[in-house]
């Protein structure tokens, strides 16, 4: 208790710099539960704190879905790439790789695809398009899909693809049960996402990545990799795809993405 009191006092002395009270900062740095971990950083109006906390509670979920992988690739001058592996209602794991060159990232991606056999791999091609281009050259084009965060969303109500992906991810969290391994950087990044006033056309827009980077002093690598797993609609269950194929004569588009 003495150690706790001294830490809170220390954090209180830094309040002018951090803008956070000593007690709240203590809960953030030394959490007793997931909700305490992001109580100091949550600025988002996209997700309820208690709903988000439930996503980090370990639970048994029987999952037969196919795998989707989202990859936030390090750009020029950056040293970290993050892979998010999602199986339906479960985020299986986050993988972080530092200091890898383009060819090394390509090889690492191929290794993970061979291991997990994903139905789709969505790659951020904004900072380092070489990884995506190389994988397409190596004939992984049926699985690998490049995503431009600033590109056009599929649904017209979103300002860009980034806003659409994050909103789809939030809907996934709200549709309990789901599970995400507890990871503090991911929580912090997700809780910094915030809806901005709509633009002149009324489209949904999120706080910019640059603004978030200034606040947390790093890029949103983990949450971006997670958001990428929601880039496009994918059939994850055999029975749903079979139903879709039965009605194919009435539709158009790719059997996997639906577009």
Q: In CATH, what is the class?
A: Alpha Beta
- State the shape: globular
Largest sheet: 5 strands, mixed
**Secondary structure: number of strands:** 7
Radius of gyration: 20 Å
Q: What is the CATH topology?
A: Nucleotidyltransferase, domain 5
Distance between the terminal alpha carbons, to the nearest Å?
58 Å
Number of domains: 1
- In CATH, the architecture is 2-Layer Sandwich
Write structural notes for this entry.
With 259 residues, the protein is α/β, with parallel strands linked by helices. The chain has a single domain (47-233), classed as Nucleotidyltransferase, domain 5 (2-Layer Sandwich). Helices cover 41% and strands 14% of the residues. The chain has 12 helices and 7 strands. The protein has a 5-stranded mixed sheet with strand order 3-2-1-4-5, sandwiched between helices. A hairpin with a 2-residue loop joins β2 and β3. The chain is globular and about 60 Å long.
In short:
This protein is α/β, with parallel strands linked by helices and 259 residues long.
Present the secondary structure layout.
Layout: H1 2-13, H2 15-18, H3 22-29, H4 34-37, H5 49-55, E1 67-72, E2 80-87, E3 90-98, H6 102-116, E4 120-124, H7 129-137, E5 144-147, H8 161-174, H9 184-191, E6 195-196, E7 205-206, H10 209-216, H11 221-228, H12 238-246
Parallel strand pairs: 1-4, 4-5
Antiparallel strand pairs: 1-2, 2-3, 6-7
Helix pairs in contact: 1-3, 6-7, 8-11
């Amino acid at each position: 208790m003495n150690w706790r009191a001294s830490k809170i006092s220390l954090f209180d002395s830094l309040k002018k710099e951090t803008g956070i009270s000593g007690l709240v900062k203590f809960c953030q740095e030394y959490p007793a539960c997931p909700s305490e971990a992001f109580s100091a950083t949550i600025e988002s109006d996209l997700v309820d704190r208690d709903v988000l906390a439930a996503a980090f509670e370990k639970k048994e979920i029987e999952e037969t879905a196919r795998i989707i992988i989202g990859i936030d690739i390090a750009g020029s001058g950056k040293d970290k790439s993050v892979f998010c592996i999602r199986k339906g209602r479960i985020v299986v794991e986050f993988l972080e790789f530092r200091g890898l060159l383009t060819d090394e990232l390509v090889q690492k991606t191929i290794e993970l695809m061979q291991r997990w056999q994903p139905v789709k791999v969505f790659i951020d091609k904004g900072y380092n398009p070489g990884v995506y281009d190389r994988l397409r050259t190596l004939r992984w084009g049926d699985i690998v899909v490049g995503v431009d965060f600033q590109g056009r969303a599929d649904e017209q109500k979103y300002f860009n693809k980034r806003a659409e992906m994050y909103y789809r991810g939030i809907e996934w969290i709200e549709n309990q049960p789901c599970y995400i391994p507890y990871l503090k950087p991911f929580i912090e990044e997700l809780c910094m996402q915030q809806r901005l006033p709509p633009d002149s056309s009324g489209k949904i827009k999120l706080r910019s990545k640059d603004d978030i980077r200034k606040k947390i002093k790093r890029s949103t690598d983990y949450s971006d990799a997670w958001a990428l797993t929601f880039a496009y609609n994918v059939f994850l269950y055999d029975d749903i795809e079979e139903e879709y194929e039965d009605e194919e004569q009435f539709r158009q588009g790719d059997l996997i993405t639906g577009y």
